[in-house]
Amino acid sequence: MEIRKRTLFKISMSLIALFLMWKAYLNYDNKVLSVSPNLEEISGIEFDKDGNLWAINDSGNSTEIHHIDTLGHIKRSINITNAKNIDWEDLTQDDFGHFFIGDFGNNNNKRKDLTIYKIENPIDLKTSETEAEIIRFKFIDQDLHNTNDSIKNFDLEAFVFYKGRLYLFTKNRTKPFDGFTNLYSMEDYASNQKARRVSRFKTCQAGKYQCWITSAAMSPNRKTLALLGSNKIWVFKNWKGDDFFSGDLTEIDLGLITQKEAITFYNDSLVVIADEKFKGIGGNLYRYVIK
């Protein structure tokens, strides 16, 4: 009986190893390139109107947006002189090509200075510096003094532009974890605002590292929304009004869990994803086709 148990254990471990190898293959078979070591904390990516890829780093890094070339090197950087990088988390752009930088990471759910910086499309900027329009906001239903773990769903790492407004997707930190991301809407111009809640969606309940939202992207034709997690993309189409979660849902398995922090569309069916480098893993760009 003991020999049989050991044999079954070895078989189980072999199957687990094969499963993990398959998951890793899903991830790295789609790898395009590794990015510059200066972008190890990459947290947002976006293509400009000429097809150039731009990226930002998250908290504690510079107030620069970086152009990544086809080898993963930084080709050019533009400093935003009136900005701070408290916790930059995502990039998006409007129909005119203006870029929005989300300085709204809120791990402890207590920030009172959530900010979005709006700049010209980087391809139109001829110098290495620019100033941004500043959009300040908070969630309309957030109690900034409440430390109750069960309602900690005001962290933020994902947003998109859609039909003249900005849409925000929360990164859930509830305890116990309930799996919901909340959708909020706000204006896209410089002002002090309160983001209003539109809807919510339950990604999954397996645990925060598999189910929370780390970035978002809208296709150029504005018909497909992609939400990114550590090992999944949630894709929505055919929604009603501005409730994206009312649409048809498809889940894409990305394989092994890495610290995936950024997603953008290259065209209406191809997305590019970036992960941060963590303990020697990641620091890459990947591409996936949204079928």
What does this structure look like?
By secondary structure, the chain is mostly beta strands. The chain has one domain: Neuraminidase. Helix content is 11%, strand content 43%. The strands form 4 sheets. Strands 6-7-8-10-14-13-12-11 form an 8-stranded mixed sheet, with no helix packed on it. A 5-stranded mixed sheet has the order 2-3-4-5-9, with no helix packed on it. Residues 15-26 have low confidence and may be disordered.
What is this structure, in a nutshell?
The chain is mainly beta and 291 residues long. It contains two helices and 21 strands.
Which key terms come to mind for this protein?
2 helices, five-stranded mixed β-sheet, 291 residues, 43% strand, eight-stranded mixed β-sheet, mainly beta, Neuraminidase, 21 strands
Topology:
Blueprint (H helix, E strand, L loop, with lengths): L1 H27 L2 E4 L7 E6 L5 E5 L6 E5 L5 E7 L7 E6 L5 E5 L10 E6 L9 E2 L2 E7 L15 E8 L2 E7 L8 E8 L4 E11 L5 H4 L3 E4 L5 E5 L3 E6 L10 E6 L6 E6 L4 E6 L8 E6 L2
Parallel strand pairs: 5-9, 10-14
Antiparallel strand pairs: 1-21, 2-3, 3-4, 4-5, 6-7, 7-8, 8-10, 11-12, 12-13, 13-14, 15-16, 16-17, 17-18, 19-20, 20-21
Under the CATH scheme, the architecture is: 6 Propeller
CATH topology value? Neuraminidase
Number of strands: 21
Helix count from the secondary structure assignment: 2
Largest sheet: 8 strands, mixed
Mean pLDDT: 89
Percent of sequence in beta strands: 35-45%
Distance between the termini: 49 Å
Q: What is the N-to-C succession of helices and strands? A: HEEEEEEEEEEEEEEHEEEEEEE
The total domain count is 1
The CATH class turns out to be Mainly Beta
Q: Briefly note the structural class of the backbone.
A: mainly beta
Percentage of residues assigned to helices = 10-25%
Which descriptor suits the 3D outline?
globular
Unreliable stretches: 15-26
Radius of gyration: 20 Å
Strand order, largest beta sheet: 6-7-8-10-14-13-12-11
